[in-house]
Each structure stands twice: as structure tokens, then as C-alpha cells.
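Note to self: the last two entries modelled the partners one at a time, which told us nothing about the interface. This time every component goes in together.
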Amino acid sequence: MTATTTKVEFGDVHVGDTLPELAYPVTATTIVLGALAARDWRPMHHDYDFAVNRNGTKDIFMNTPNQAAWFERFLTDWSGPTGRLGRMKFRMKGSVFPGDTMVLSGTVENVETDDTGCGWATVLVRLTVDGDLKTDCTARIALPTNDDDNPWTRRGDQWKP
Amino acid sequence: MTDVSDVSDVSDLPPEVEKLIGEVQYEEAGEFPVEQGYIYTTCSSVENGNPLFWDESVADEITNGPIAPPTMISVWFRPHQWSPGRTEPAVPLQVHFDMKRIFELPEAVMTDNTIIFHEPVRPGDRLRTRQILRSVSGPKTTKLGTGRFWVIDVEYLNQKDELVGIETYTGFGYKRGEK
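The predicted structure of the combined assembly is written out below.
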């Protein structure tokens, strides 16, 4: 491995570990850029009048695929590029609006090695605004088990996400 | 494929819905190949500096060439807002809209989303998707109103017929104000 990047290995990770927190001030540009990057043209993600007067929300709000992209960025900021996402499950409990400072925090809930030898960490990620939970996400991410392991090389029955 | 099968209650379902459960529907190709520009735009939108997506030498070393961020999987099947010959905006996840129509539920929200990632998606890939209705609940009342939950899988395959991902959506279609 010659890339000069972060690399978290499976053996370094323990249940209860916390990931570095990410706080981000959300603007209308954040919302609109995220929606259009995801090819989500629905007006509640770019049209204030529609969001307020049709949807009854206080403003335009962040769309689901863009939240997934934020979760991915948060997780791989921690793991480095050798971390390979296997699965994400998230539930939206509230919306993220321009003017919010969203905070992503994460805790390792489980570590395990599957029957192929792949090392997995299960991380609970919480997206909060002013302490209120907006979305929680449970992610399963594969991490290298040693210097020579690379989860991205796994294919077929060697990859059990 | 889904862990919310407990919402199934086929006993009161109309036959037209019952016969759709487990059926592959709307198998279709993405409207354009996976492309680098959207990868940069998505990474930019969340300030994702993962070198896999910005540095070809890192991508060559770790992923045997460039890949797209796994969470972009749904991007590649969202239709254009307009294209020649199209008179109505196309909608992604047509099965969801079919359920709204069949049960005459004008409002809907997505409550849960699970994504399972398989083969990496690479620039130039042509993805296909197919939608499968997994379950539909009986009538339920929530703070939003009265309606039904349904679970839909979207399977994504590449041009080699390799599975690249499965997205599972739980939707709740409802009428407001009926408690």
C-alpha cells in the first residue's frame, strides 16, 4: 500500500470506539447541490415556495440519497479508502434545513470476522441538529485485517455484505 | 432481502396486488452510462475527499481502477426530468407510485432505506434495475394518517449481469387526517 492516506485496520477497532465528529453548517446551496448531484429533481429540495406551501415544511430540506452520501463520507473519513461499505440502513426521523448545523457522530457497535475471513465493523451513525436526532444509520463496513488484506478485492462468495 | 416482512398481510390485499408480490417488474436500463462528472459533483456536494474518487493512482492500487461512491447507486437510474418524446416526467420507483394509485393513497413518505453493496460500480458501466414488491401491510394508522406500508426492493445489475446492489425501501402511503 503506497497511498499516503488514512487506513484503519480491523484489529485497531473495538466496540465502543467513537468516530471523529463532523459538524457542518448547512446552507440552501448544500441542499440544492446535493439534490441535483443525486439527480433528484423533486421541488421540495430546491423550491422554497413548494416546500413551505405544498409540503408544509419550514424550508427546502436535504434529500435521502444526499444524506447517504454524507454518511459514506463520514465513515470513509474514518476508515480511509480501504474501508469498503457493505450495508447501510437508515431511518429518517426529521428533516435537515438550511441554517442547521448538522452533526454526525458514530460509535462502533460490533466487530466480527465472517466465515471468509473478512473483518467487519458495525457503526451506528447519528445525524443530529441542536441535539435532536434527525436520522440514524447503521452501517456495516469491511476493514483490512492486515497490511496485505484489501476488502475491495473480494468478489462473489468471498463478499458477504 | 428484506427484514420487514412482518408488515405482510396478504389476506386483505386485492388480487392485483397479491399477484405482484415477489414479481420482477419494471426491468429497465439506466438512461446513461456511469460517468465521472457526476462522481465529482457528488463528492463535491458532501466534501468527500476520499482519494479513491479523485486520484487515479490510488484507485488503481486499491480498487483496480476508478469506481463510483457506493452510495451513488440510485443516481444511475434516476430518469431525466425531460427527454425527447416524453410528455410526462418519469418517476423513479414506479412500484411505489403504483401502490399509491391502487390503494388511492394520495400522500406517501419513505420511512426506511437499506442499501446492500456488491460489485463496485465503475465509470462506463451500464446499469439495469428491476423492482420487486416484497410486502404490503394491512391498514395502519400513524400520526400522519391512515394507510399502508409497503416494502420494495430495487436490484441493480451491471452490463455483465453482476449484482451491484440492492436497495430496500419501506414506504407508507396514507390519507391525511384519518385517525
